[in-house]
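Folded chain entry
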Amino acid sequence: MTESQTIPWKTITVEAVAIVVSILLAFAIDAWWAEKKESEVKHIALLALRADFIASREQLLGVLVSLESARTNFDRFQSATTAELIEIDPDTIRYFLTALAKNHTFDPVTSTLDALVNDGRLGLISDAQLLTQLSNWRRNLDNIEDISLELRIESVRVRRAMERHGGPFTRWRRSPNNLEVLQTADGETMANLQQDVDFMGTARSHQYALSIYLWQLQQLAEDLDSIVTLLDQATSSR
Protein backbone atom coordinates (compact mmCIF):
# COMPACT_ATOMS: atom_id res chain seq x y z
CA MET A 1 0.00 0.00 0.00
CA THR A 2 1.40 3.33 -1.12
CA GLU A 3 2.05 5.79 1.64
CA SER A 4 0.11 9.09 1.30
CA GLN A 5 2.25 12.01 0.31
CA THR A 6 2.19 15.24 2.33
CA ILE A 7 0.63 18.13 0.37
CA PRO A 8 3.01 21.14 0.30
CA TRP A 9 0.40 23.69 1.33
CA LYS A 10 2.99 26.29 2.16
CA THR A 11 4.53 26.11 -1.31
CA ILE A 12 1.13 26.15 -3.00
CA THR A 13 0.05 29.14 -0.93
CA VAL A 14 3.20 31.07 -1.78
CA GLU A 15 2.81 30.30 -5.47
CA ALA A 16 -0.88 31.27 -5.42
CA VAL A 17 -0.11 34.54 -3.69
CA ALA A 18 2.63 35.21 -6.23
CA ILE A 19 0.22 34.59 -9.10
CA VAL A 20 -2.45 36.85 -7.59
CA VAL A 21 0.10 39.57 -6.88
CA SER A 22 1.46 39.35 -10.45
CA ILE A 23 -2.08 39.63 -11.87
CA LEU A 24 -2.90 42.60 -9.65
CA LEU A 25 0.42 44.18 -10.55
CA ALA A 26 -0.34 43.71 -14.25
CA PHE A 27 -3.74 45.38 -13.81
CA ALA A 28 -2.10 48.20 -11.85
CA ILE A 29 0.50 48.70 -14.57
CA ASP A 30 -2.20 48.73 -17.26
CA ALA A 31 -4.27 51.24 -15.27
CA TRP A 32 -1.19 53.39 -14.65
CA TRP A 33 -0.27 53.30 -18.33
CA ALA A 34 -3.81 54.16 -19.42
CA GLU A 35 -3.92 57.04 -16.93
CA LYS A 36 -0.49 58.21 -18.10
CA LYS A 37 -1.61 58.12 -21.74
CA GLU A 38 -4.81 60.00 -20.87
CA SER A 39 -2.79 62.57 -18.99
CA GLU A 40 -0.49 62.98 -22.00
CA VAL A 41 -3.46 63.37 -24.36
CA LYS A 42 -5.03 65.92 -22.01
CA HIS A 43 -1.81 67.92 -21.80
CA ILE A 44 -1.36 67.92 -25.58
CA ALA A 45 -4.99 69.01 -26.01
CA LEU A 46 -4.54 71.86 -23.53
CA LEU A 47 -1.37 73.02 -25.28
CA ALA A 48 -3.15 72.95 -28.65
CA LEU A 49 -6.11 74.86 -27.22
CA ARG A 50 -3.75 77.45 -25.77
CA ALA A 51 -2.01 77.90 -29.13
CA ASP A 52 -5.37 78.35 -30.88
CA PHE A 53 -6.65 80.90 -28.38
CA ILE A 54 -3.41 82.89 -28.44
CA ALA A 55 -3.62 83.02 -32.25
CA SER A 56 -7.26 84.11 -31.97
CA ARG A 57 -6.32 86.81 -29.47
CA GLU A 58 -3.67 88.24 -31.81
CA GLN A 59 -6.12 88.27 -34.68
CA LEU A 60 -8.83 89.86 -32.54
CA LEU A 61 -6.52 92.68 -31.47
CA GLY A 62 -5.95 93.50 -35.13
CA VAL A 63 -9.69 93.50 -35.85
CA LEU A 64 -10.36 95.81 -32.88
CA VAL A 65 -7.72 98.29 -34.03
CA SER A 66 -9.16 98.23 -37.55
CA LEU A 67 -12.74 98.83 -36.40
CA GLU A 68 -11.78 101.55 -33.93
CA SER A 69 -9.81 103.31 -36.66
CA ALA A 70 -12.82 103.14 -38.98
CA ARG A 71 -15.08 104.66 -36.35
CA THR A 72 -12.60 107.48 -35.70
CA ASN A 73 -12.23 108.25 -39.40
CA PHE A 74 -16.00 108.28 -39.90
CA ASP A 75 -16.31 110.85 -37.11
CA ARG A 76 -13.66 112.96 -38.85
CA PHE A 77 -15.50 112.69 -42.16
CA GLN A 78 -18.87 113.52 -40.61
CA SER A 79 -17.58 116.59 -38.76
CA ALA A 80 -15.45 118.05 -41.57
CA THR A 81 -16.60 121.19 -43.34
CA THR A 82 -17.31 121.24 -47.06
CA ALA A 83 -14.22 123.35 -47.66
CA GLU A 84 -12.06 120.88 -45.68
CA LEU A 85 -13.40 117.90 -47.63
CA ILE A 86 -12.76 119.53 -51.00
CA GLU A 87 -9.12 120.08 -50.05
CA ILE A 88 -8.37 116.68 -48.50
CA ASP A 89 -5.49 114.59 -49.86
CA PRO A 90 -5.82 111.14 -51.50
CA ASP A 91 -4.67 109.28 -48.37
CA THR A 92 -7.39 110.89 -46.28
CA ILE A 93 -9.97 110.11 -48.97
CA ARG A 94 -8.86 106.46 -48.77
CA TYR A 95 -9.24 106.47 -44.97
CA PHE A 96 -12.72 107.99 -45.19
CA LEU A 97 -13.94 105.61 -47.89
CA THR A 98 -12.62 102.63 -45.93
CA ALA A 99 -14.41 103.84 -42.83
CA LEU A 100 -17.67 104.31 -44.73
CA ALA A 101 -17.75 100.75 -46.09
CA LYS A 102 -15.75 98.96 -43.40
CA ASN A 103 -16.39 95.27 -42.93
CA HIS A 104 -13.80 93.39 -40.90
CA THR A 105 -14.91 90.07 -39.48
CA PHE A 106 -13.32 88.06 -36.70
CA ASP A 107 -12.52 84.49 -37.72
CA PRO A 108 -11.05 82.75 -34.64
CA VAL A 109 -9.03 79.55 -34.69
CA THR A 110 -11.35 76.84 -33.37
CA SER A 111 -9.92 73.65 -34.91
CA THR A 112 -8.75 72.07 -31.64
CA LEU A 113 -11.89 72.94 -29.69
CA ASP A 114 -14.10 71.68 -32.51
CA ALA A 115 -12.14 68.42 -32.68
CA LEU A 116 -12.40 67.86 -28.91
CA VAL A 117 -16.14 68.49 -28.98
CA ASN A 118 -16.75 66.30 -32.03
CA ASP A 119 -14.84 63.24 -30.77
CA GLY A 120 -16.07 63.55 -27.18
CA ARG A 121 -12.66 64.26 -25.66
CA LEU A 122 -13.61 67.58 -24.16
CA GLY A 123 -14.42 65.55 -21.06
CA LEU A 124 -10.68 65.07 -20.54
CA ILE A 125 -10.64 68.61 -19.16
CA SER A 126 -11.48 68.45 -15.47
CA ASP A 127 -11.37 72.19 -14.74
CA ALA A 128 -15.03 73.18 -14.36
CA GLN A 129 -14.28 76.88 -14.74
CA LEU A 130 -12.39 76.30 -17.99
CA LEU A 131 -15.18 74.09 -19.34
CA THR A 132 -17.73 76.81 -18.56
CA GLN A 133 -15.61 79.45 -20.28
CA LEU A 134 -15.20 77.25 -23.36
CA SER A 135 -18.94 76.63 -23.52
CA ASN A 136 -19.64 80.36 -23.24
CA TRP A 137 -17.02 81.04 -25.91
CA ARG A 138 -18.75 78.78 -28.43
CA ARG A 139 -22.12 80.37 -27.71
CA ASN A 140 -20.73 83.91 -27.98
CA LEU A 141 -19.11 83.12 -31.32
CA ASP A 142 -22.53 82.21 -32.72
CA ASN A 143 -23.87 85.60 -31.58
CA ILE A 144 -20.86 87.38 -33.08
CA GLU A 145 -21.45 85.66 -36.41
CA ASP A 146 -24.99 87.06 -36.59
CA ILE A 147 -23.77 90.60 -35.86
CA SER A 148 -20.94 90.21 -38.38
CA LEU A 149 -23.48 89.32 -41.06
CA GLU A 150 -25.47 92.45 -40.24
CA LEU A 151 -22.33 94.59 -40.60
CA ARG A 152 -21.61 93.01 -43.97
CA ILE A 153 -25.14 93.79 -45.17
CA GLU A 154 -24.78 97.41 -44.05
CA SER A 155 -21.43 97.65 -45.84
CA VAL A 156 -23.08 96.52 -49.08
CA ARG A 157 -25.83 99.12 -48.64
CA VAL A 158 -23.24 101.89 -48.27
CA ARG A 159 -21.34 100.80 -51.37
CA ARG A 160 -24.56 100.74 -53.38
CA ALA A 161 -25.55 104.17 -52.07
CA MET A 162 -22.20 105.49 -53.31
CA GLU A 163 -23.25 104.62 -56.86
CA ARG A 164 -25.44 107.74 -56.97
CA HIS A 165 -22.21 109.73 -56.82
CA GLY A 166 -20.20 107.71 -59.31
CA GLY A 167 -19.17 105.00 -56.85
CA PRO A 168 -18.94 102.50 -55.28
CA PHE A 169 -15.28 103.65 -54.95
CA THR A 170 -14.44 100.46 -53.02
CA ARG A 171 -14.53 96.76 -53.77
CA TRP A 172 -13.86 93.55 -51.88
CA ARG A 173 -10.69 91.88 -53.03
CA ARG A 174 -10.60 88.11 -52.35
CA SER A 175 -12.67 88.47 -49.16
CA PRO A 176 -14.97 90.99 -47.42
CA ASN A 177 -12.13 91.76 -45.00
CA ASN A 178 -9.86 92.87 -47.82
CA LEU A 179 -11.33 96.19 -48.94
CA GLU A 180 -9.67 97.91 -51.86
CA VAL A 181 -10.23 101.63 -52.40
CA LEU A 182 -10.55 102.65 -56.02
CA GLN A 183 -9.01 106.08 -56.53
CA THR A 184 -11.94 107.52 -58.49
CA ALA A 185 -13.23 109.82 -55.75
CA ASP A 186 -11.89 113.30 -55.04
CA GLY A 187 -12.53 115.90 -52.37
CA GLU A 188 -15.58 117.24 -54.13
CA THR A 189 -17.05 113.74 -54.29
CA MET A 190 -16.52 113.31 -50.55
CA ALA A 191 -18.24 116.65 -49.91
CA ASN A 192 -21.20 115.56 -52.04
CA LEU A 193 -21.46 112.30 -50.13
CA GLN A 194 -21.50 114.16 -46.82
CA GLN A 195 -24.21 116.53 -48.01
CA ASP A 196 -26.42 113.70 -49.28
CA VAL A 197 -28.92 113.17 -46.45
CA ASP A 198 -30.00 109.74 -47.67
CA PHE A 199 -26.42 108.56 -48.06
CA MET A 200 -25.45 109.78 -44.60
CA GLY A 201 -28.45 107.98 -43.14
CA THR A 202 -27.21 104.76 -44.71
CA ALA A 203 -23.66 105.49 -43.53
CA ARG A 204 -24.81 106.09 -39.95
CA SER A 205 -26.76 102.84 -40.01
CA HIS A 206 -23.56 101.10 -41.04
CA GLN A 207 -21.64 102.81 -38.26
CA TYR A 208 -24.27 101.74 -35.74
CA ALA A 209 -23.82 98.11 -36.80
CA LEU A 210 -20.05 98.59 -36.66
CA SER A 211 -20.25 100.01 -33.12
CA ILE A 212 -22.36 97.08 -31.91
CA TYR A 213 -19.95 94.64 -33.49
CA LEU A 214 -16.98 96.45 -31.96
CA TRP A 215 -18.55 96.41 -28.49
CA GLN A 216 -19.32 92.70 -28.74
CA LEU A 217 -15.76 91.97 -29.83
CA GLN A 218 -14.40 93.98 -26.90
CA GLN A 219 -16.45 91.80 -24.54
CA LEU A 220 -15.20 88.73 -26.39
CA ALA A 221 -11.61 89.92 -25.93
CA GLU A 222 -12.09 89.91 -22.16
CA ASP A 223 -13.45 86.36 -22.29
CA LEU A 224 -10.53 85.33 -24.48
CA ASP A 225 -8.03 86.74 -21.97
CA SER A 226 -9.70 84.75 -19.18
CA ILE A 227 -9.53 81.53 -21.19
CA VAL A 228 -5.85 82.03 -22.03
CA THR A 229 -5.12 82.65 -18.33
CA LEU A 230 -6.91 79.42 -17.35
CA LEU A 231 -5.06 77.50 -20.06
CA ASP A 232 -1.75 78.96 -18.86
CA GLN A 233 -2.52 77.66 -15.37
CA ALA A 234 -3.64 74.26 -16.65
CA THR A 235 -0.55 73.69 -18.79
CA SER A 236 1.93 74.93 -16.20
CA SER A 237 0.53 72.91 -13.28
CA ARG A 238 1.36 69.56 -14.85
